[in-house]
Design brief:
There is one protein chain. By secondary structure, the protein is an alpha+beta fold. Helix content is 43%, strand content 17%. The protein contains 37 helices and 33 strands. The strands form eight sheets. Strands 9-10-8-7-18-17 form a six-stranded mixed β-sheet, with no helix packed on it. Helix 17 crosses helix 19 (586-603). The termini are far apart.
Length: 1072
Amino acid sequence: MAVAGINLQFYLILVFSLGQFYVQNDDTDFLKCNESSFTGLYADLTHKIDYDLRMTYYRPLVVYCGLNSYHLVSSTLHDFLLVHHWVRPTSGVPFTPKRGRSLRTVIISILLLLSGNIELNPGPPISPVRDQTAINFGCWNIRSAANRSKATLLHDTIAEHQIDIIAITETWINESAPAAIKNDIAPPGFQALHVHRAGEGRGGGLAIVYRSNLPVINHPLQKQVKPVTFELQLVKLGLTTLANIYRPPSGSVNQFLDEFSDLLALLYSQTAGKVVICGDFNCRDFYDELSDGLESFGLIQHVQEATRGENLLDLLITDIATTVTDVRATDESFVSDHRLTTAKIFTKTYKIKIVEKVSRRNISKLKPNVIEAELRSSTLFTAPGETADEFAAQIKTVVTGTLDRLAPLRQYTRRPPNPTGKWLSPDAALAKRRRRRLERRWNKTESEPDRVAYRQACKEANKLIIESRENNFKKRIAESDQKDRWKVITDLLHCGDNAPTSHYDDAQDLCNSFSSFFVSKIANIKQHVATVLKQAMTFLDPPHNGDEFARLPIVTPAEVYKILTNMPSKTSSIDFISTKLLKECAVVFSDIIAYLANLSFKDGCFPGCYKSAAVIPRLKKTNLDVKLPTNYRPISNLNNISKVLERLFLNRFQSHVVRSPNYNSYQSAYRKNHSTETALTATMDYIYRAADRSESTVLVALDLSAAFDLVDHTLLLDRLRCSFGITGPALQWLASYLTQRTQVVTIGKFSSPIVDLACGVPQGSVIGPLLFTLYISPLAQLISRFGIFHQQFADDSQLYIALSPSNAVPCIERLEQCLSALQQWFLQNGLQLNADKSDCILFGTAQRLKTFQPLNSVDISGTIVPVSTSIKTLGVTIDANLTFNEHVKLLSNACYYHIRALRNIRSSIDLETAKSIACAIVNSRLDYANILLYGVSKANVLKLQRVQNTLARVVVRSWNPNTKTADLLKSLHWLPIHHRITFKLLAVTHKVMMTREPVYLASLIEHYSPTRSLRSSDRNLLVIPRCRLNVGARAFSVAAPRLWNALPDELRCVDSITSFRSKLKTHLFTQP
């Protein structure tokens, strides 16, 4: 500061310690004075300092208060709070004041401040604590975040106060709430951690909402501490422990104080960093007792203003080593009756990265004809490479060079997403400013008219803010095409990305740890099976009897063009050209890729530059620890051009192998006209027919560990050659495709070192799944040797056999011998059977199971697998008594979960969009495998019908009880549940009759052919097998012919699958 042309910089330190006041200037001299003189001196000083000076982050003045003195000074000297904004408390142990030597120095310093001729020092503000980050912190009792309107206002509040992390109490969100509600509490660029409220009543529920680039995780003590008198949420912010607390007002005070003291003792004994405690304590009647307890633990309570009405209920508590400034209680009564508490907390954590430099091309203005002209005049057409590797490298060089000229890479600044996004309308922003202006006026005048005007402004602003967000979503949906629309809907439903954040300082180490984990997991399994793999093969593969597949037909540009135009527009970090641009320039790239494919197929060489995969870890569940690699699954991304090559190869390769007699006809994965539903239908048909014969059925579901990643390349290539007749360039191409592959783990802009893959087939590839099914194809003949029936879908296998009192013992022995042989086969082929995750169940009618219990467990090579009362296989839960009660219950809960999510966003979308979402997320669940529900109890059908009725009312937005749900279903053109089951069964029957696939279902139905000429000969009827019991009538082989023969003659004679489904639906609408 400058006075009379002289620049002076000094420090004035005011200290209250041990009942005495001290004043210190920059030469460390102190003046001791009593409380009364200090009070008068301080009051004169603060009243005469200009307000602008007090509100400036200014270096010269520092005030420190000890633990015992802070509350006294804050409560007795009101003027102390007025300068709290520019006074920064220091941390550490209080210093020992000296006796004052010169009163003159202090007086001169005070006179300088009072002179009125002071210029502000323009020096930058300095953090009061070195190497620590200021976190904009908030604490708020929001009183229900379970509705979209309240969440919208929360987003606006976070953006307005620039909050980095906020602890929320009374969210009113329970565990069964849909993801749309749980995730909607977090604005763009933020994430949320929840502690759900218990029960169904109002109140309770905690959440921590934080910026995605802050290292916030659930605290390990969260699962250990279960208080009774209050709700607790513990998280870690770097090295700082944050405790969010809600105490219901009706609880016992003494018990709360005891449990809270135990919590403090636990935190101090088992946490190494700083501690921040906040929340709604409802402590109006026992604040003094609570303060005494905090003082005994060396804690400071920072909030000094009322947070609800005239009561101080919401607290912010820290240890003495944590620096907290700018504590305010802001009136946000337009959202909640509690005030929002904000503060700056200085903590040693990862620094928030406000901006990030990214490089990208602006391809929006590129014209496909310009790119095509550039490429056709390049060496790709004038001097193309002579080998697949050369030409693939040439493609990358030329295409990258062309894009560098037309759309060069430029650096852009990517800032954190605005919590309100881009949806806040100008009218809403204007209403917010008017609301704040009226709030300041009311705070100044405290008059009733100003209060009424302010409340009215709050209502108007809230209405405009909510309308802004809804209108924004409606506009985005209206402007999006069919594919992009689902991305918008995903934003609406908050189906977030579960990738680990790339903003941690240790993101590179995180990449390396993921890479090491994924590689070591496979290495450990390979080491376990290595000794068996070296032994002679006990089970020999069946030889190939048929034509060989050696030469790959020529690829035409028209074939490539069709593949390119049908590709999904997804682009990964490993692509040097975006898939969108590849599709826009499909004409020129069809010629380029066709030439590359012909070189590759001719030489039997897959380009080496396309053998790398970028693996992105995806969190299995959102509530898991984000830093544990075991909680992630690897998702592989491959080059988009390599996928085109794979598709071209698959079109030539698949038709050959599926015709081979050695191909497993009971494998339903990755085959046309096959699905999990067809596999389940065949399995349940066997079980129902056995039950009709008064027999029980034992079923064993096998689980393999990391099956795709353990495929042995040598064994696979030998099997393709010996059992499927793959030779010549085709076999060489597959060998080149499988070998010398690499992968890197990527998190944001960070990548792990390149890792070589010695085994496995790429899971994100086009031909990898088919190669895996060919690898395990000998299982069918091995299982058949023991007379065991089975179904397979990829690596999921179901083995089952019927039991009667006369053959139970030998059948079970055969089953266990089969399981032992399978275990041996898996080991010899480098795979590992996970017996601990395999399941066993005994099916039969309730009466039959009471009188006949042939086994309690099965032995899988020394591992005892107990018989369960229910089993979940291929997405369907089947109970031992075949009632499907548990499946219907789980299905109903899942559907209601998504219905609530749809209802939460219904006001933001139109009817057609709502109908599309309902069909995608609810009706698809109701329809999945509903063919198995034919013949279930009327009570179960009624439960599912209630689900559909609720869904229809949400979609149509009709809650009038006088409106019949049957009319709503017809208006939506939705069949009721019992007709949907019939529709699925007849649609499958017609498709099987037309295509004769799958073979295992086609063998269950037989055309009716009378022995003599009758009028029914040309009616396309089916033979109806006989059955004794109702459970037998539920079998596909019985129910399908009965329902089929009951159809009108003209409907049974329709050949087109599409026409049949359309006419069948129309026919069912006419049925009761």
